[in-house]
Amino acid sequence: MFQVHAAAIAMPVPAHRHDRHHPPRAKKRGFIHQIIKGIVIMAAVATTLAATQAFAQSGAGAASADTAADGVYDLIVGTYTGGKSEGLYVYRFDSKTGDAQQVSVAKTVNPSYLVVSKDKRFVYAVNELPGDNGPATQRGDVSAFGFDAASGQLTFLDKVSAQGNDPCYLSLSPDGRYLLVANYSVAADPGGSFAVLPVEQDGKLGASVLTVHHEGGGPVKGRQDNAHVHSTVFSPDGRYLFTQDLGTDKLWTYRYTPDGSRGLVSPAEWRYTDVKAGTGPRHLIFGNDGRFAYLTSELSATVSVFAYHDGRLALEQVEKLAEPGFKGAVGAAALHLSPDGKFLYVSNRGDANDISIFAVDARTGKLKRVGRQSSLGKGPREFAIDPSGQWLVVGNQGSDTAYVFRRDQETGLLEPNPKRIDIGSPVDFKFVAP
Fold first, then answer.
1. What's the chain's Rg over C-alpha atoms?
2. What is the spatial distance between Cα 362 and Cα 322, in angstroms, rounded to a whole number?
3. Which residues contact 115 (CB under 8 A, 6 or more apart)?
4. What is the pLDDT of residues 339-364, one digit of tens each?
5. Dihedral sign of CA atoms 12, 13, 14, 19 in order
6. What is the C-alpha to C-alpha distance for residues 427 and 243, in angstroms, rounded to an integer?
7. CA 396, CA 425: separation in Å to the nearest integer?
8. How many angstroms separate the CA atoms of 169 and 177, rounded?
9. How many whole angstroms separate alpha carbon 228 and alpha carbon 218?
10. pLDDT tens per residue, range 106-165
11. What is the number of other CB atoms lying within 10 angstroms of the CB of residue 5?
12. Rounded Cα distance, 118 and 353, in Å
């Protein structure tokens, strides 16, 4: 059941936390439920601006090909700090050659995921804390930066609490008024959460106005002992919010109603879409025409195809990422469509360390494998395709490298002999037109 509280959020702290690398906490027993906490006091506001599919899917971080006549873009890279990295890096990327030259760096802790505002004036990045070595009492944060695309400079604006541990995903609401952050875990139970942060006129962030906690777990010991919210994605029409929970094997569904008619975010009548137990749903994206959605499941290393209509998802296909007979560790991560929507790319970590390439059937949305490309390193977590569609850049978190592959736009395949970028623990990539 759901409960709304107008009190400050207070969560107990366990002796140790459970995240992607640490021992699990005791599993929460009983049926899965949610508790909505926060303050939802809103006056009526203007009708939400219509959201384009590109903005709903990517937070408007990507630029269209015709906005930069010279084919030169800014490439912002999020990293894990503490090793060779200092924070967020900005590169000037030439789509004619695939060359990337570092322009600037903004020092901030573990900016492992980022989004760019629709007007490209602001960049928001998680501060994924406590991280591997921090105390469970330490909450993660979200940092706001002003961004000058022409010079490639980032200017720190402010930082607010993510209201949970290990924030790992960000998405902007279709109207740009709120930034949503997914927290992989919360010390202690009830597991993962997501928080809704107001975006001010000057780009700064306000404190969370709503925090939604998931409870429950799944059958995989050590990875599904609690809920783990891994992404927050708006539907193409901006009316629904999907939160992918690796711990509960569910895609939770909420209505987004900024006019206050149902509260800001409220559970849909059907509440969630189930996926196969033990698969661990991670990231969701929508196709260019909004009729289909694609999901990575981290624990099973699969990609799934769903038909989409008015807030509901219907499973159509599941494809394994690893080669037939592969016996090593796996870990599905990111997925992105080519700008024309004809090809889907999916990263797989563990011992596989590659990117699967699928052709997309425009009529049915279904996938057909056309290739597989090694990331040439360890831990290819996130990647991005440049706005021209000519290049794919992937980061190897575990080997301090990123590679820029030339992309054949007819076959979808990635050509050998990519360009190399040396950068500490690269994770996320966003292209921005100057």
1. 20
2. 24
3. 58, 59, 60, 61, 123, 124, 170, 171, 172, 179, 430
4. 999 999 999 999 999 999 999 999 99
5. positive
6. 21
7. 7
8. 17
9. 10
10. 999 999 999 999 999 999 999 999 877 778 778 999 999 999 999 999 999 999 999 999
11. 13
12. 32
User: Which fold would CATH assign to domain 214-374?
Assistant: Methylamine Dehydrogenase; Chain H (2.130.10)
Q: Is the pTM of this model over 0.70?
A: yes
Rounded CA-CA distance 255/237 in Å is: 11
Which residue ranges make up each domain of the chain?
Answer: 214-374
- Contact yes or no for 281/274 (Cβ under 8 A): no
